[in-house]
Write a structure and sequence with these properties.
- The complex is a heterodimer of chains A (332) and B (458).
- Chain A has 13 helices and two strands.
- With 332 residues, chain A is an all-alpha fold.
- Chain A has one domain.
- A two-stranded antiparallel sheet of chain A has the order 1-2.
- In chain B, 73% of the residues lie in helices and 7% in strands.
- With 458 residues, chain B is mainly alpha-helical.
- In chain B, helix 2 packs antiparallel against helix 3 and helix 7 crosses helix 8.
- Chain B is globular.
- The longest helix of chain B has 40 residues.
- In chain B, a hairpin with a 3-residue loop joins strand 7 and strand 8.
- The chains are: A mainly alpha (332), B mainly alpha (458).
- Chains A and B meet through helix 3, helix 4, helix 5 and helix 13 of A and helix 2, helix 3, strand 2 and helix 14 of B.
Chain lengths: 332, 458
């Protein structure tokens, strides 16, 4: 079984897994919210129907990620959330607004529905931008400088675009006809902006962050770090070619842009995570400094080993139940 | 400007008070839905499906509000109460972790199937999804109450260098107050959901809805309430005795007892005066409190003066307890009276219907009052005898906390208004919501008839 000293590594891995799963899953449903058209109610309905059965469970991955930070690395949780006090509160309000707007809009008369659509869109923007901002200030070690704030602002734009990208590719997968054509157009635009965003982060991050610079230039991480941007650019380039061909007859290949985007997300995340490993607060706390007592970690480890495969299994089950193109959302 | 301690407490109280409203509905409503679904499966009578369809929408809305306000809670520990996780993180962390792992994902994932999946899965699977959602919400209550109870009556740990370390997880989870608190909270949820269902159904009947669905839902809910209420009184009494054993200062505040004395009277009403250690305007019945707490008319009960500096603020605990018990009594009277009428097949008068509408959210008020009693009653400690609330608070600038406090408060007030508005709007449109489309009925049939050809090939 796992030795005490390795427990923090296991939990860091688990936390990384839940963050990346969150970024992908809630990423696409936040993206759909960001793109929600306010001038076409029928398309808005379809778009929201495409995320209806999933958003609740998607958001739970955020609770798990924050939960794992709290459980496994409590002192890091304190440092991070204290530094991000205001942005995290704003993000929460964003998530609250979109979560409830989703349910309210389905249950009110047509007049108010439009208003709840606006709130849904606004909430999605707020949540995405503040997550990007938080990521940016985390990367900058919560520095209080103009550089740090600019980088955080850049990151806010980047993450919002990335979510819009994965959201639009999700729509290509789940919709048909006019809306699908529109989604393809969105995906092309967002793909280009994400391309620029990744370049900007790749240049800015090592320049302003000494630790990251050393990490990126010393082997063996340097090799991996050289691969990450290369793979991302190639994939985005291929993605753009694919988008130009879509939609194909019988709608074949409609899943390809989504898959490509997921792989780009995973690579970007790994690149970022390995830039800081083993630090959980950049330059301040390693995962060993911040870890809880081994007997507590062990108690939750056994549960996690049993439960997480079950969670993954029934998540897959739920995606299979709602496989295929979106239908009108109807409650029973 | 108020200090960060007060603001953080206000913010936490606002968050948790708003949050608890929705789980207190959904925990029991999930089981109600399961019951409606099973009744439909057995009888095939569409009225059960109509009831299910209406209440599953209420469930979805309440659940969404519970989820989003719950996410906020998970951030509060780190942002405002860092001392909490630093001191008892080794205990609290795993309990919260198990809540996320075993409950949150279960309920959130199967909620999707339960709400939108009936077309796409066989009937039994849809019923199973409904059951799993109910199990999920209940499991969630299990873990969070385990943690809350441990904070009230901590066991199974040892302190090393000022940090709590777990010794025995069984003792931590099944700490002395846990079984009582869990039963008390689950029953409270049952009553909250029952009175909500009864109230909204009465509202529909008053508004002229003469379908069978609201009548049947009302009947089910009132019977459940009539059964649960005496059980709740029994469990509440046991819970009180347990509190007397482990947290006598809380009981002293609940009963407004200042001096340790024998033959303690029951105060029906009083105005506790913390400065002068006495009560004003007492209306009392002699010896009853001693009988309730010690089962002896001359039994001795410890007073607040034995716990100077270690007892909670008296007034909120004292009043909160009376509000909770008062509403409980009102619930008992109304539930039994209405059940009596229903059993004898008498039509319900306008008066009964209006009082049920008036009681729609009585469960909320009683639940909040009860939580204030137990949580304020634990003060000045965050974890009884182990960590003072004032030692756990953050050192964030008060302006920031003031900003977020006002932000949350505004959002929550807006949401509460929208929730109530939508609930009554749905009640007015209920007939539309419940209507079963012909093609849905076909779909239902297709899944529920056994597939003969498939059976033959096996």
């Amino acid at each position: 079984m796992i030795a005490d000293a390795n427990l923090p590594i296991f939990f860091a891995g688990l936390m990384a897994l839940s963050i990346i799963v969150y970024a992908i899953l809630d990423g696409y449903d936040l993206g759909v919210g960001i793109l929600l058209p306010l001038n076409n109610d029928q398309q808005a309905d379809q778009m929201i129907a495409s995320i209806g059965p999933f958003w609740d469970a998607n958001e739970t991955w955020l609770v798990l990620a924050v939960g794992l930070l709290l459980i496994a690395f409590p002192s890091a949780h304190n440092v991070i959330l204290k530094a991000l006090y205001i942005p995290s509160a704003i993000m929460l309000v964003g998530l609250i607004l979109r979560g409830v707007a989703f349910d309210f809009r389905a249950k009110v008369a047509q007049v108010n529905k439009h208003r709840w659509n606006q709130i849904f869109k606004l909430g999605s923007w707020i949540a995405s931008a503040s997550q990007g901002y938080m990521l940016g200030s985390f990367v900058m070690g919560f520095e209080d400088s103009f550089m740090a704030y600019s980088f955080a602002a850049l990151s806010a734009v980047g993450v919002t675009c990335a979510y819009a990208l994965i959201g639009s590719t999700w729509l290509i997968l789940k919709t048909t006809d006019d809306l699908q054509l529109r989604a393809i157009k969105w995906a092309k635009r967002m793909g280009k902006i994400s391309f620029i965003g990744i370049i900007a982060v790749c240049i800015a991050n090592p320049l302003i962050n000494q630790f990251v610079f050393e990490r990126w230039t010393t082997p063996p991480f340097a090799y991996f770090m050289a691969i990450v941007p290369f793979v991302c650019f190639t994939l985005l380039f291929i993605g753009n070619l694919v988008l130009k061909q879509l939609p194909l007859k019988d709608d074949s290949g409609c899943w390809l842009p989504f898959l490509i985007t997921v792989v780009v997300f995973v690579f970007c995340f790994c690149g970022l995570a390995f830039s800081f490993y083993p630090y959980v607060v950049p330059g301040e706390l390693t995962i060993w400094d911040a870890a809880s007592a081994p007997e507590s970690l062990r108690f939750i480890l056994y549960g996690a080993l049993i439960v997480i495969p079950c969670i993954l299994a029934y998540t897959v089950f739920s995606y299979r139940v709602f496989w295929g193109k979106v239908e009108d959302l109807r409650y029973y | 400007m108020a200090d960060v301690f007060l603001l953080s407490r206000l913010q936490f109280a606002t968050n948790i008070s708003f949050h608890i409203l929705f789980p207190s509905i959904t925990i029991a409503l999930g089981w109600f839905l399961f019951y409606f679904k099973v009744r439909f499966n057995i009888s095939g009578h569409p009225v059960w499906m109509r009831i299910y369809r209406f209440w599953v929408k209420v469930f979805a809305l309440s659940f969404a509000l519970g989820v989003v306000s719950g996410i906020t809670m998970s951030f509060q520990f780190g942002t405002n109460w860092p001392g909490y996780m630093e001191t008892v993180g080794n205990i609290a962390g795993p309990l919260l972790g198990y809540e996320v792992l075993t409950a949150f994902f279960l309920e959130a994932t199967f909620l999707g199937v339960m709400l939108f999946g009936i077309h796409r899965v066989p009937t039994w699977l849809h019923t199973l999804a409904t059951l799993l959602v109910a199990v999920g919400t209940t499991l969630s209550a299990f873990w969070i109450i385990a943690l809350n109870s441990w904070m009230q009556t901590p066991t199974g740990y040892e302190m090393r260098d000022g940090v709590a370390h777990a010794l025995d997880w069984w003792a931590i989870i099944f700490n002395p107050s846990f079984p009582f608190r869990l039963s008390h909270v689950l029953l409270a949820s049952g009553l909250t959901a029952s009175f909500l269902i009864a109230g909204i159904s009465s509202y529909r009947i008053i508004r002229g809805d003469n379908k069978k669905a609201p009548r049947l839902a009302l009947k089910t809910a009132v019977f459940v309430a009539a059964l649960l209420m005496p059980l709740q009184i029994f469990v509440g009494d046991l819970h009180g005795l347990n509190t007397l054993e482990h947290q006598p200062q809380k009981v002293a505040a609940m009963e407004g007892i200042w001096d340790t004395q024998k033959g303690v009277p029951l105060l029906l009403f009083a105005v506790p005066d913390e400065k002068n250690h006495s009560n004003h305007f007492e209306i009392a019945i002699p010896n009853i409190t001693s009988i309730i707490l010690t089962h002896d008319p001359d039994g001795e009960v410890q007073g607040l003066n034995d716990f100077i500096g270690e007892h909670p603020p008296v007034a909120p605990v004292f009043y909160g307890f009376r509000i909770m018990v008062g509403i409980g009594m009102l619930m008992l009277v109304i539930a039994w009276f209405t059940s009596f009428k229903l059993i004898r097949n008498k039509p319900l008068s306008k008066g009964v219907l209006y009082s049920l509408v008036g009681m729609s959210f009585s469960g909320w008020i009683a639940t909040l009052a009860g939580w204030y009693v137990t949580e304020i009653g634990r003060q000045p400690y965050l974890v009884s005898g182990l960590l003072r609330t004032s030692d756990a608070v953050t050192d964030i600038a008060p302006e920031n906390v003031m900003f977020t406090f006002i932000l949350y408060l505004t959002v929550y007030v807006g949401l509460l208004i929208a929730y109530l508005h939508t609930l009554f709007l749905m009640a007015r449109k209920a007939v539309e919501i419940e209507e079963i489309q012909p093609e849905e009925r076909l779909q239902q049939k297709k899944f529920s008839t056994p597939n003969i050809t498939k059976g033959a090939t096996l």
